[in-house]
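tl;dr need the bound structure. longer version: we got a ligand (glutamine) that a collaborator sent over and nobodys looked at where it sits. i said id run it. heres the input, straight from their email, havent touched it
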Amino acid sequence: MISQRTKFVFVTGGVVSSIGKGLAAASTGALMEARGLRVTHIKLDPYINVDPGTMSPYQHGEVYVTDDGAETDLDLGHYERFTSARLTRANNFTTGRIYDAVISKERRGEYLGATVQVIPHITDEIKARVREVAAGVDVAIVEIGGTVGDIESLPFLEAVRQLRTELGPQNTVSVHVTLVPWIAAAGELKTKPTQHSVKELLALGIQPEIVICRVDRELPLDLKRKIAHFTNVSVEAVIAATDVSCIYELPIKLHKEGLDQQLVERLNIWSRQPDLSQWKRTVEKMREPAKGSVSIALVGKYVHLRDAYKSLHESIVHGGLANDLNVVVHYVDSEELQKDTTDMDKMLGDYDAILVPGGFGDRGLEGKIKAIRYAREHNVPFFGICLGMQMAVIEFARHVCNLEGADSVEANPQAKHPVIHLMPGQRGIQDKGATMRLGAYPCQLSEGSLAARVYGTTSISERHRHRFEVNNEYRGELEKAGLRLSGLSPDQLLVEMVELPGHPYFVGCQFHPEFKSKPHAAHPLFTSFIRAAQDYSRIRPRKDDAPRATLN
Ligand code: GLN
């Protein structure tokens, strides 16, 4: 049962993908929350994969992990960062998951002999899930992936059409996000793609009430009028989403354009004016970081693809905000580092800290190990996340414990010293989808460790997504040589965090802290890492006499 009061905002996209539909949906959630309303977010993805867990970051960007261990679309990361909604596997589903459920029901005979069809069986399944997740909140924001006009998204849009009829006009609003391109040759903004996109939506039985236009400059009133005229919406409901210098400005911008006012009026919600002071503070800090700037080398595999490290990138920004610093992130391709001829000083000597993120497969691993060795030996602040921590353990085993041939069995199944090996629960599993250690698990930090100081507690819970772990047979040797295993699972069987006493900042974690960092509440591991980068930037050797960042 949905609460009587639950209102629905359906967000569709038009013209092209990547115009910020997810951020528009997340900002809508932020604005509703700033008005004191309880919100949740749902993302419906039209592809056939059951979840994005098996998809390459090249195809799909980051796989975001929720507390309950769902591997989800990266838009859920935006939703959790922009609102206080706690999302679960129910908040993101794909065509694949819907068909999977419907086919299972059909096999169990639950359709009582009926011919199973897209309408009503697939659409009923979609509607039931949307209603279930929306129960108990004031506003549910439902984003439909892809672009209107795609074959794949038709069942989702049909379900939206039906839901709008069932729930009534005071309980649902359709928001269409489109692009208004600037045509340089004509020196004009063009509304035609928007007109066509809304026509497509109309042909599917959905009249949008609000059109959000992504545009790279001011959208003049006469163009707003034109769009309103051709799309049957009121001119106040044509909202310009002009480019923002930082994504946390979007809720403020959309509020100024009247988005939340339009929504609450149409949904007949009585609420206060939104309190956007936190967002304003964040944007001011980002515009003018009081204490200057630090630079971080992010040594990874998907360096050409920012989306692959979305949450990580945002968490670094949050860590900067918490320290009043701007953080410049340089992506360093780990494969570039692995050549024998690489001048490591040249590649890494100009940064205030080195971060090695999570990843899969064997490409570029040796380059990561070289970067970690550089950080350890040169006292450069280092933060290793998941694969990054595993590589730090291998580096330490090889070069401090002198275990030649230390490796991860992920890269080298015949490793002489398999210091990183398969978790017992993972052995023999053949399926690739949803078979890792996924989601939130508790972790105990050792008293007096840097980790415990950073967190301000010894009991934490963090989200995981990994198959391999530190091999317990090597724990004694690693510890004897000086690696502190500062975080363990409550049963002491899994190494969750490592650190290096005596080094200014050398921290590795098996989990992904980037999934829990927020703009107004940076994750402590990112806050402390950026602070360490700031400290190091004051003392690090410089190759030239270039002036240092202006730091207090
Ligand atoms: N590939 C490693 C594992 O599966 C690390 C995973 C990650 O970095 N997310 O354990």
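gonna send this back to them w/ a short note. The CA atoms of residues 455 and 524 lie 6 Å apart.
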